[in-house]
Amino acid sequence: MFTQAPRGTRDVLPEEAGNWVFLENKFREICHEFSYKEIRTPVFEHTELFQRGVGETTDIVEKEMYTFQDKSGRSITLKPEGTAPTVRAYIEHKLYTQPMPVKLFYIIPGFRYERPQAGRLREFHQFGIEAFGSDSPHIDVEIMVLGIMFLKNLGLDDIKLHINSIGCEICRADYKKALKDFLDESKQNLCNTCNSRLNRNPLRILDCKNPECQRALKEAPVVLDYLCDECKAHFEAIKNDLSLINIDYTVNPRIVRGLDYYTRTVFEIISEDLGAQSTVCGGGRYDNLIQECGGPPTPAAGFGMGIERLITILEKKNLLKIPEEKVDIYIAPLKEEYVDTALKLLYSFRESGISAETDYLKRSLKAQMKYANKIMAQFAIIIGEEEVNSGFYTVKDLTAGEQQKVARDKIFEYISNCIRKGCDKFE
Ligand code: ATP
Ligand code: MG
């Protein structure tokens, strides 16, 4: 049992780790282009932060949090998402005293006790960005565009942007009432959770994945018909910006997202390659969250993007072709007594930035060469009796299969040259 990773978690093995580093670098690059700065917050927070920040009636807080008591009896929760912790850090460190907007990004693990399935893990990872301090629709668009550009730069040209507005507290109240009145008629078709949501937070029902509930919603009133003039204008401005910079989008009035903090804009970036869990990126505006968490009134917007889901799409489309890492040089001592010489060479190569490996298992020459090929070494230096007695080493070009003798005191210089400039000495 203990030799198996816990359900819903997975290891990233060495052959996959390169993909993660590649994507993390690409994400950092685009954040830099858009002037977002990295923030790192703890893996766990006080449970109350998520109860307040994510919302008591969300799936996350109702049933998915990894919550435990630490040895002092505090209630601690492994972070299920990145926005609430970022907001907490923004308030705690008074980042609101900096010039606005404060634009942040992060790469985090997230923990949710969900039913594991394709695209749904209990420990997953996210790229996320948040922009604090502006209620301009241009910021909402910037956030969408950063996500879209990042994915397009990776070669994903058939992703779809779905947008919606869920209004402000004022106009949403009218919509909530209309939705509740409508759903009261078909209560018996809603799942138990949605029945209890009907009185507490009917909007959440739009996000329910149960097909029965989705059917009951077919003729339901649409939030966009209830927006007040300001919210309508904000949404129109977003659509204008997107057209201005030629970003295709679909207005999807069913999107509410799984977190309670959103106001006005919500959006999803969708890939058909993902099957049921088709959302690779979800985000929106949350103008009240910072104040609700005890900070000064600060409009804000952001997104979260699932890294595992992203990797699934890229793998399906064969867009992850990170070359395996090669080793520059393999040093093969043929006898125990040459090990000291091998080690000295090994560390002088490594010190000068040339990757080098040697034998730690007292293997025969044949076995060592087999290993050298396996780790994709470019060159091998053989240190044997004949070599030592006559003051040279044998250098093998493992790609070309050729070899030649190099004077002992020239070996370092010779190999460095070969690695740096390519080797033209094998005639
Ligand atoms: P979904 O509707 O797919 O459950 P969500 O509304 O819970 O998504 P967010 O909380 O907005 O999603 O998280 C943003 C992104 O993080 C998602 O679009 C998805 O790519 C990823 N994500 C969320 N939960 C998981 C999970 N359990 N496993 C893997 N990825 C996840
Ligand atoms: Mg979810």
UniProtKB/TrEMBL annotation:
Keywords: Aminoacyl-tRNA synthetase, ATP-binding, Cytoplasm, Ligase, Nucleotide-binding, Protein biosynthesis. It is an enzyme of class 6 (ligase). One of its GO terms (molecular function) is catalytic activity, acting on a protein. Coiled coil: none annotated. InterPro entries: aa-tRNA-synth_II, aa-tRNA-synth_II/BPL/LPL, Anticodon-bd, Anticodon-bd_dom_sf, His-tRNA-ligase, HisRS-like_core, HisRS/HisZ, HisRS_anticodon. One of its GO terms (biological process) is histidyl-tRNA aminoacylation. It is found in: Cytoplasm. It holds the Pfam family HGTP_anticodon. It catalyses: tRNA(His) + L-histidine + ATP = L-histidyl-tRNA(His) + AMP + diphosphate + H(+). Residues 23-323 form the Aminoacyl-transfer RNA synthetases class-II family profile domain. CDD domains: HisRS-like_core (cd00773), HisRS_anticodon (cd00859). It comes from the Bacteria. One of its GO terms (cellular component) is cytoplasm. Its EC number is 6.1.1.21. L-histidine binds at E81, G82, T83, R112, Q126, E130, R257, Y261, Y262. Belongs to the class-II aminoacyl-tRNA synthetase family. PANTHER family: HISTIDINE--TRNA LIGASE, MITOCHONDRIAL-RELATED, HISTIDYL-TRNA SYNTHETASE. Homodimer. This is Histidine--tRNA ligase. It comes from Biomaibacter acetigenes. The gene is hisS.
